[in-house]
Amino acid sequence: MIKTFKRPLALRLRGLGILLISVFFAPAAIAQSASGNQAQQPIPSAGNFLGLGVGAIPKTPGNSDLRVMLLPAVQYTWGDFAYVTGLKAGLWGFTSDDRSLRIGLYAEPRFGFDASDSPRTAGMADRGFAVDAGPSVRWTTAAGVLNLDYGFDITGRSNGQVAQIQFIRPLVTETSFRLNGLLGATWQNATMNTYYWGLRATETNDGQPVRIGAGTGFSAGLTGIYRIDSSSAVFFGTTINRLSQEQADSPISDRRYTPVLYLGYGLRM
Q1: How far is CA 148 from CA 51, 152, 187, 193, 233, in A?
Q2: Which pLDDT tens digit goes with each residue over 41-66?
Q3: Domain parsing of the chain, residue ranges
């Protein structure tokens, strides 16, 4: 059983966040690297990439235990028209002449959970796998790449909505080793939060449902890739997510800070 970070680490995590922010916005001339592919993809590869990795995420929302999953890592771009990055796919409908601004549509999976995976969710119904989709904007600046998404649950699981903002800045741009820093914020409306973090009337002792309000969580992380040879590489990443206050107060949550970790091997295409 893999345990997540305990609450006494909260101050150190805040310190890490401050350090990341200072590194992100330190004066530096990185316009050239930021305008390339490195800052526009979760895995900072300079081109198309196909791999397989092992990832660890909380078993249930806000859970102290992690589940290990085998996941594909795909990064592929079809010119200025379409892309797949990680588990996210999208289509561009507008691209500025200098390619710094792109507007289109995206789709991204949202994992549910098995209620039997945690004592706090035991007896609940499972929460199903869903897909969020909606408009997407990517803005490449001299400091890094800003991604903005607004998604709707198109699978009808929660019928909720989510808004995400993510800033990616290249930190190391060497040929053999590349490292990106990420900062993000994610807002989920009450409908989505209630589905994944709340309790139905049939799941409570008093027959009263527990609804979870809308809220915003934050994240900070690092993603990297180390080239073994001209065609293969090892990739890795870690992210610390800070749940919104509404999610942290959910009866199924026992952790305010939750990690996501992954490590894998892939081939450049």
Answers
A1: 26, 14, 12, 20, 29
A2: 778 876 788 999 999 999 999 998 99
A3: 7-268
